[in-house]
Write a structure and sequence with these properties.
Layout lengths: L5 H7 L5 H7 L7 E3 L5 E3 L12 E7 L9 H14 L4 E5 L4 H5 L7 E2 L2 E4 L1 H5 L5 H21 L6 E6 L3 E3 L9 E3 L10 E3 L1 E3 L4 H8 L3 H10 L1 E5 L4 E3 L6 H8 L6 E5 L4 E4 L14 H10 L2 E5 L4 H16 L5 E6 L1 H7 L12 H21 L4 E6 L6 H13 L4 E4 L1 H4 L5 H11 L15 H12 L4 E4 L1 H12 L7 E4 L19 E10 L4 E6 L18 E2 L5 E2 L3
Parallel strand pairs: 3-16, 3-17, 4-15, 4-16, 8-11, 17-18, 18-19, 20-22, 21-23
Antiparallel strand pairs: 1-2, 2-14, 5-6, 6-14, 7-12, 9-10, 12-13, 14-15, 22-23, 24-25
């Protein structure tokens, strides 16, 4: 049987005018700024006085594998499923980065019959938010280097500059560079580098800012480097925040699109969850909570990364309180965690499945026992799943008091998400005791240890001598009370991508600590994590093409 590709399904869909989607939510016309027929920016100001009324549902997943999990697909299908059972639902997602789109992962607009559309626009330039973020990032970099070139009145030490340039593309060639070459008139020679735009602090700032003025205040606090005598230098010191805010004044407005079934979808912001906090914007989430009865949102990668940061950072900063959590898994991925190679995942293997299940069960226990939230496991269905395998997953989750719902949204859209939707509605009506995994009034080292022991189930955390020195410096500068944003491989609970399942007996090594003072958290880099990915041997870009009519193919 030949299946249609995601892009073929998306291109065949009949979309509602975005004005009709906005009207279905009761958004006033003066808040809707159309970007063509099927996309719009929503100005939150006309909605400011509306109360937030919706239940908030977080979708997360098991540790990613090459077999795929389908977290975004499940999020979209769940929102459609909620509408199928008569609920007023909205989905709130992140924007895709061009790096993964042209790299190894592909797009991030869902899949099959559970997609957000227009799929090509969303996966490519969309409404220009990422371009604006990159421009603001690089304006600050240019003003920093210009200040040094023009006499360096602030006494900035070129060897202690922490601000990098940004581009929204996987480009390993730009990780470490030397610039300012060519003589005195060309700038001051120094070591430099690029981050991918989704790792820029400005991306995190935009996603955590409550409004335009909060955005400007956060931008002003960004630390770009240190003086010769160790004092931090901020964007405000460079008088840069006003111009940066001007570049971002449209980008901070949430984007409204729709699913294949016409469910409203807010897609805004896109920080990676392995090197940033991995959540869509606070502005989009709060706007959605005012307009619907149920809001489905997702956090990047697995629950130890995206969900932990959603709960410990985003919820803490923006007074959000989730009502239920969905943990997405596939039988195929669990068998991979149990040691089955990718080529053999279509064959029933209960022994391997049982070996891989601790990964799922550890994520479930973290959400329920550490964070105090009710959860359901959504098994993203594949045709090769057997009844015995599905029954084993349900039995093991049942031992923890957690139900399992089969999600068939990839093949059936909202109809295939009704069972999951019913369970989510039930969970949302239950009381919960939401709490954070650590207290802010503990030291940086204690926060790191809490995350590593309670969430990753490590024996402990080890700071390199450099990281210890940085922790002391950040404490002396008054940043010890900030939450911690862990930069860690997404492929393992540990900082070693090769340790699958639910590993034990490991220690997490923190090699570098830096403050994102504008975002309001401390970034802890572990293992060999990088803030600028590279392209794979065969990039997805090689398969993407466009014909004489402008019709794109190969995008997924």
């Amino acid at each position: 049987m030949a299946y249609k590709t995601d892009i073929e399904i998306a291109q065949e869909a009949e979309l509602l005018p975005i004005s009709a989607v906005a009207a279905s939510l009761g958004i006033p016309e003066d808040a809707v700024e159309n970007y063509g027929r099927y996309k719009a920016k929503i100005d939150p100001r006309p909605l400011r006085e509306r109360p937030e009324k919706a239940k908030l549902i977080l979708v997360t997943a098991i540790t990613p594998t090459p077999a795929g999990e389908g977290k975004t697909t499940t999020s979209v299908g769940l929102a459609d499923g909620l509408r199928k059972i008569g609920k007023n639902a909205v989905v709130a997602l992140r924007e895709p980065s061009l790096g993964p789109v042209f790299g190894i992962k592909g797009g991030a607009a869902g899949g099959g019959y559970a997609q957000v559309v227009p799929m090509e626009d969303i996966n490519l330039h969309f409404t220009g938010d990422f371009h604006a973020i990159g421009a603001a990032n690089n304006l600050l970099a240019a003003m920093l280097d210009n200040h040094i070139q023009q006499g360096n009145a602030l006494g900035i030490d070129p060897k202690q500059i922490t601000w990098k340039r940004a581009v929204d593309m996987n480009d390993r060639q730009l990780r470490h560079i030397v610039d300012g070459l060519g003589g005195k008139a060309q700038g001051v020679p120094r070591e430099d580098g690029f981050d991918i735009t989704v790792a820029s602090e400005i991306m995190a700032v935009l996603c955590l800012a409550s409004d335009l003025m909060d955005l400007k205040a956060r931008l002003a606090r960004i630390i770009v480097g240190y003086t010769y005598d160790g004092r931090p230098v901020t964007a405000h010191d460079l008088k840069a925040e006003g111009a940066m805010t001007a570049l971002l004044k449209e980008a901070i407005k949430p984007n409204l699109v729709q699913t294949l079934e016409g469910t409203p979808a807010f897609i805004h912001g896109g920080p990676f969850a392995n090197i940033a906090h991995g959540c869509n914007s606070v502005s989009a989430t709060h706007t959605a909570l005012k307009l619907a009865d149920y809001v489905v949102t997702e956090a990047g990668f697995a629950a130890d990364l995206g969900a932990e940061k959603f709960l410990d950072i985003k919820c803490r900063m923006s007074a959000l309180h989730p009502d239920a959590v969905v943990i997405v898994a596939t039988v195929r991925a669990l068998k991979y965690h149990g040691g089955v190679p990718k080529t053999e995942l279509n064959t029933e293997n209960l022994e391997a499945l049982e070996k891989g299940l601790p990964n799922l069960l550890q994520h479930v226990a973290n959400i329920r026992d550490v964070f105090g939230l009710p959860c359901v496991v959504a098994i993203n269905a594949f045709p090769t799943d057997t009844k015995a395998e599905l029954d084993l997953v349900a039995a093991k989750c049942g031992e923890l008091g957690v139900n399992v719902a089969l999600s068939e949204v990839w093949a059936k859209g909202g109809e295939g998400g009704k069972a999951l939707a019913e369970e989510v509605v039930r969970l949302c009506d239950e009381p919960n005791s939401f709490r954070f995994s650590y207290d802010l009034d503990t030291s940086i080292e204690e926060k790191l240890e809490a995350i590593c022991k309670r969430i990753y189930h490590a024996d402990g955390v080890a700071l390199t001598p450099n990281a210890k020195k940085q922790a002391q410096q950040l404490t002396e500068l008054g940043f010890a009370s900030l939450p911690v944003c862990m930069a860690k491989t997404q492929y393992s609970f540990s900082d070693d991508a090769a340790l699958l399942g639910a590993p034990k007996g490991f220690t997490v090594t923190v090699r570098n600590l830096k403050v994102s003072a504008g975002a309001g958290f401390i970034v802890a880099l572990t293992g060999d994590i990088m803030t600028m990915p590279g392209l794979p041997k065969v990039p997805a870009a090689e398969k993407i093409d466009v014909d004489e009519n402008g019709r794109i193919t190969g995008l997924f």
